[in-house]
């Protein structure tokens, strides 16, 4: 306890913490993200109903407008859809899938990109040339097209009966294998600078192996930009997942994400049931906006030229 309190105080008194406290945008974005994250994680306990439990649904409550509209029911704050599912509960459960895909794909992309970037920047030669040419090819196409291609290849390699059950893993792989390039190029450039510094030469002189030099000495010094890229890519990953689900190649209706909810609600938009698509779309927009704003602040906070 005697060592924890000074450590917490030093973190709270650091330059980044001071910048965070002074930035209203960063504070508000963080609070919004925490609220949405908690709502998603604890959806089974906080949601008014389980929208995917048939026993809790009643068709007499279908297509109810939001509670403040004429004909609304206070029990369904954001209304219900055509199958009597509570829209608020559907959003909370949908965010669980969206955030899971976002975090998992970002971790996959970061681990793969950082590893390949370290290898390319430290080893150089043919390894670096091959990795960068692959990266150049991937950057020649829009990320959503690459994700669609990888998604189609992975789905085609699986039996049709297993495609629905493996949709989550396929989405994570599709998005993660699409976004590793940014990490690899950033880490490669930083590694090429760091490997020429004196502390790396000293480690070589002491007989330290290449893997140990990369992991113990170079990696900690190149993680700053990686953290910024990961924060911004989280929003892009959630948006990419929503796009794939909206196009019908993402999560199935039995395991809906925010993108799936928007796709389902879009079919009834011109029938006057606007709340089924509007509220999931607003939730997605707020989630991505909060992540991007926090990423922008983090990029500025970690830039020594702006301090």
Automatic annotation (TrEMBL):
One of its GO terms (cellular component) is plasma membrane. InterPro entries: BP-dependent_transpt_permease, MetI-like, MetI-like_sf, OppC_N. It is found in: Cell membrane. Keywords: Cell membrane, Membrane, Transmembrane, Transmembrane helix, Transport. The keyword Transmembrane helix applies. It is a multi-pass membrane protein. The chain crosses the membrane at residues 25-47, 97-122, 134-154, 166-187, 222-248, 268-295. One of its GO terms (biological process) is transmembrane transport. Residues 95-295 form the ABC transmembrane type-1 domain. The keyword Ribosomal protein does not apply. Belongs to the binding-protein-dependent transport system permease family. This is Dipeptide transport system permease protein DppC. The lineage of its organism: Bacteria, Pseudomonadati, Pseudomonadota, Alphaproteobacteria, Rhodobacterales. The gene is dppC.
